[in-house]
Design a protein that fits this description.
Helix content of chain A: 25-40%
Largest sheet of chain A: 7 strands, mixed
Structural class of chain B: mainly alpha
Radius of gyration of chain A: 23 Å
Distance between the termini of chain B: 40 Å
Shape of chain A: globular
Oligomer: heterodimer
Largest interface: A-B, 60 and 66 residues
Strand order of the largest sheet of chain B: 1-2
Number of domains of chain B: 1
Distance between the termini of chain A: 80 Å
């Protein structure tokens, strides 16, 4: 067997390749604090991945230009190493490992989506790397006993249960019938659990409970059922594609339903893409620009939205806002810890209690943010066909009154 | 033979010291081992038997779910572990973790083998494109079905037990590396042993002309099923290890990941040269290195770069790396060219 020599030389080539490509740089280089992030730049979450990345970049630029982070009397600037996780959990876990062990990153920012956060959390936990994440809302993230995971957002089960309460209220306190359609992924299924809880609590009845495939682009079968059963509320959740598909097909099939509750309307730019067809859709949101929270970096929601639009050319969805907030949390924690020791930073993060333009941030034992309620907005259009998202619940933040029930298609 | 021993011991030594020499690359090396196992076992069907299967991902995913389920289910109620709203936190002690993993891996290897036998009995009568399409359906169906089974987490996914607090920071990486390296050695030795028997000749006979093989008295169905079961055994094992390594199982993106792993295993075997023992090993290694490189240097363009690589391979190395080497240096593969005979043939023309 003479081929063995060829193979032998091949192996030595690999050895050389590996040994030359070992480059490791530490978390704090000179005056830079290097954060690592795996982001979905391609794949099914790519649009939300970009929203997340824009949010991170926006905050990094802002914090750096406003003096950076002061630790131990020295000023540091943030820098982020990005990798593309392709919206794939396996890849995300690999990249987390790579960021930590090869790139020497000691602090991480979260990826987009609950599924990917679930894949990364075991890795950051093992290495004791503090991770502030802004886009993993699944409840099960906060019940696994993770100590280094901090989420600036409210858990997923709180997204749409308010909508059910609202429907019951509008029905004079009487139970309603609910049709549900959720994508088969960690986040949407968690939203479903929240809705199920609300249904149980209010004594309502679920009449349709459909699971939708990933890479959602058709839900006609569910909508046919909705037409037949005439439920009081239709709840749909499936990230950006779910929201777009639902609106498109509801308009095409002229499905009449008194209340349509969804997630990801603003990330999908519904009011822009579908205009009047998206009118009256009720959407769960972590944040809305009209909320009156304040901080020193972005001032308030309206200013943030204006600055964001100037930089990236579109109205910021809450995914961008919460991602920006993650950086503010990190800055705050570094300064309070006054150190780059991972344990100290972790403890400082756990003790976070602050207000940002995005909302109040205070972490519970499990790492979820317990100080920030969800809001519901409704897409409303004026006569000229220009549509806007207006907050309708909770009443404290409401800037418009809920339109209920949704007028029939024949009367629009 | 002397050179072979040298080669094998070199690989073994490299494998044993690699995680300590390149500690930062442990995870990539572990994944490389898993990829080689998948490519090598795919080659049993695609290369030796001539049955292009996309269904091996079924056994891989099955192994992944089984290993994790056993690991959790042996000590805690599985339904409460996977339930997302569950407020309980279960923690495996080191002993529980390793015992669960050991039993889980056995189950992850054995059950897919049985499943392969049953499914093989049903569909290995199909040939050519029909078989390929049918197996493609298997992986897709498994992904969708598992995404609806509540006890394994359904669409929520399944978080595998976290590695217990033993050893240092590197313990987890080292454990999974040696596990996957062990699986690689086991697979390679087993496949090499199988290839040195009459079994390989039978598989080749099936590939070259199945009807003739049957006419010669070979029970082709039996051998096809056995071949598939062998693949399933190692695919299941690889899946079980990969599940623990990734730490999170998603039905379509991690377990029954036909779009990535399912295609990659075919690609790697073809790249290296199908129908050879070493082809899949080399193919997987080259593929993995290129892929990791593209991710670092062509971020955002990695799939374009990968696509170009595939095009180059198809055009310039249609027989794979091993096939190309064999054509270029036939004497190194033990093929003797009879110079007299060659001249005689040229003159005849």
């Amino acid at each position: 067997m003479k081929i063995s020599r060829t193979i032998l030389s091949f192996i030595s080539a690999i050895v050389i390749l590996f040994s030359t490509s070992v480059t490791s740089f530490a978390k704090v280089v000179g005056d830079k604090i290097v954060l690592g992030a795996a982001i979905s730049l391609t794949g099914k979450y790519s649009s939300n991945g970009v929203h997340t990345q824009n949010g991170y970049n926006m905050a990094v630029d802002r914090i750096n230009s406003m003096g950076g982070v002061k630790v131990g009397g020295k000023t540091y600037k943030f820098e982020i190493i990005y990798y593309d996780d392709e919206s794939n959990p396996k890849r995300a876990a690999q990249l987390a490992e790579r960021l930590i062990s090869q790139d020497g990153v000691e602090f991480m920012l979260g990826p987009y989506s609950s599924g990917l956060t679930k894949a990364i959390a075991p890795v950051t936990e093992k290495y004791g790397v503090p991770m502030v994440e802004a886009n993993g809302a699944s409840r099960s993230l906060f019940t696994k006993g993770y100590k280094y995971l901090f989420a600036v957002l409210a858990p997923a089960n709180l997204y749409l249960d308010v909508a059910i309460d609202l429907a019951v209220e509008k029905n004079n306190g009487k139970p309603v019938t609910v049709a549900m359609a959720f994508e088969q992924d960690a986040f949407s299924q968690d939203v479903r659990l929240g809705v199920l809880d609300a249904i149980k609590r209010t004594g309502s009845k679920k009449v349709i409970d459909d699971k939708l495939p990933k890479e959602l682009n058709d839900m006609a079968a569910t909508l046919v059922k909705v037409k037949q059963m005439k439920p009081d509320v239709l709840v749909v959740s499936g990230h950006t594609k779910g929201a777009l598909t639902a609106i498109r097909q509801i308009a095409e099939m002229k499905v009449d339903v008194p209340m349509l509750a969804m997630t990801h309307c603003d990330a999908a730019k519904l009011s822009k893409q579908h205009g009047k067809n998206s009118q009256y859709a009720l959407c769960a949101s972590q944040w809305h620009k009209t909320l009156t929270y304040k901080d020193n970096f972005f001032k308030d929601g309206m200013t943030y939205a204006a600055d964001f639009e100037k930089e990236f050319g579109y109205d910021p969805p809450y995914q961008s806002a919460e991602s920006s907030a993650a950086l503010l949390v990190f800055k705050d924690a570094f300064e309070r810890a006054n150190s780059f020791d991972q344990k100290k930073v972790r403890d400082a993060l756990a003790a976070t209690n602050m207000q940002t333009f995005y909302g109040n941030i205070k972490f519970a034992e499990g790492g979820q943010n317990v100080d920030k309620p969800m809001v519901l907005f409704q897409v409303m259009c004026d006569g000229s066909g220009k549509c806007e998202n207006k907050v309708v619940a909770p009443t404290k933040w409401a800037s418009a009154k809920l339109i209920h029930p949704i007028p029939k298609w024949s009367e629009r | 033979m002397g050179k072979n021993i040298l080669l094998y011991s070199a690989i073994l030594i490299f494998g044993l010291v690699a995680p300590f020499v390149f500690p930062a690359f442990k995870v990539q090396l572990s994944i490389l081992c898993v990829l080689i196992v998948l490519a090598t076992t795919w080659n049993i069907q695609g290369g030796e038997m001539g049955y292009n299967t996309f269904g091996n991902i079924l056994f891989y995913g099955l192994g992944m779910y089984l290993c994790a389920s056993v690991q959790v289910g042996m000590f805690f109620p599985l339904a409460e572990w996977t339930e997302s709203g569950g407020e309980k936190t279960f923690v495996h002690t080191p002993a529980q973790f390793f015992q669960g993993m050991a039993v889980g891996l056995v189950v992850a290897a054995v059950v897919p083998t049985i499943v392969a036998g049953l499914i093989g009995y049903a569909i290995l009568g199909l040939r050519g494109h029909y078989f390929a399409i049918c197996t493609l359906g298997l992986g897709v169906a498994a992904g969708e079905i598992s995404g609806g089974i509540e006890i394994i987490g359904a669409g929520q996914g399944f978080t595998t037990p976290p590695f217990p607090e033993v050893g240092g920071l590197e313990a987890r990486g080292e454990f999974f590396y040696f596990l996957s390296f062990g699986a690689l050695i086991l697979t390679f030795v087993a496949v090499r042993a199988i290839y040195s028997t009459r079994f390989r000749l039978i598989l080749n006979a099936i590939r070259d002309n199945e009807d003739k093989a049957e006419a010669m008295g070979i029970e082709t169905m039996k051998y096809k099923i056995i071949g598939w079961m062998v693949s399933a055994f190692f695919c299941g094992l690889a899946g079980g290890i990969m599940g623990g390594l990734v730490g999170y199982i998603d039905s379509t993106d991690v377990a029954f990941d036909g779009r990535e792993m399912g295609v990659f295993m075919v690609l790697m075997a073809i790249l290296g040269g199908k129908g050879t023992l070493w082809g899949p090993v080399i193919g997987a290694t080259v593929f993995h290195i290129f892929k990791e490189g593209f991710w670092t240097f062509f971020l955002g363009w990695q799939y374009v770069a990968l696509g170009v690589l595939i095009v180059v391979i198809v055009i310039y190395f249609p027989e794979g790396i091993m096939g190309w080497l064999r054509e270029k240096y036939p004497e190194k593969f033990g093929e003797v060219i009879d110079e007299k005979d060659r001249k005689a043939q040229v003159e005849l023309k």
